Amino acid sequence: MPSNMSLFSVNAILILSTDDRSRILTKYYSAPHAPPGATDQPGANPYPSIKEQKAFEKGLLEKTNKQTSDVILYDGRVVVFKMEGDVMLYVVGGADENEIMLFGVVLALRDALAILLKNSTDKRTLIENYDLLSLTVDEIIDDGIILETDPVVISSRVSKPPTQDIASVKNIDLSEQGLLNAWEFGKLKLAERMRQL
How far apart are the first and last CA of the chain? Predict the structure, then answer.
């Protein structure tokens, strides 16, 4: 059994624009148990500064711009990616990480964004809906640990409440009398339950 078994599997998730090579969303993760300042540990962040991150992203965009595959080994890391419109979605893992699992993450991200943004995954839409994008990434990955890969579940947790639910919330009486009525109703139901026991 390997001595460094961990749930930590994602070093970074990157969403970059292919037009102007700008960052839309980038999140780099470090394992909670990695020693600080160590970059050669399996869960350590190999790009601690913004300058190193941007250099990595620039090289990654140049390398993947003309690729026909979805998985590459770049800078000692397994990188899986998908192109959607004018953006590239990247998931970066360690060199010994399972590519199929990382590919499942990038597909979950792509499909959840397609559901949430109604198949309009481009730079402008992502920037306009940055809140949904950020919540989607946080629902998929937490501190480098994969939480969920089902796009329907992810989009249901992230999506805004339907407008028909907002209408029913408006009908709730939050005045003093309404709260007293709710309190009396709760006391009555509790008393009924206590008598049944």
Answer: 53
Ramachandran angles phi, psi of 48, nearest 5°: -75, -25
Distance CA 192, CA 197 (A): 9
User: For residue 132, which phi and psi values (nearest 5 degrees)?
Assistant: -65, -40
> Please, are residues 17 and 123 in contact by the beta-carbon 8 Å criterion?
yes
Q: What is the pLDDT of residues 54-98, one digit of tens each?
A: 999 999 888 888 888 899 998 889 999 999 888 999 999 988 888
Pairing of strands 12-17, 87-94: antiparallel
R_g over Cα of the chain: 23
The DSSP output letter for 80 is E
Which two structure tokens, joined as six digits, stand for 87?
A: 């953006």
Global pTM reads: 0.74
Q: What DSSP string runs through 41-77?
A: STTS-S--SHHHHHHHHHHHHHHHTT--SSEEEETTE
| CB half-sphere exposure, 49, CA atoms < 13 A | 3
pLDDT digits (tens, 9 = 90+) for 95-135: 888 899 999 999 999 999 999 988 888 899 999 999 999 99
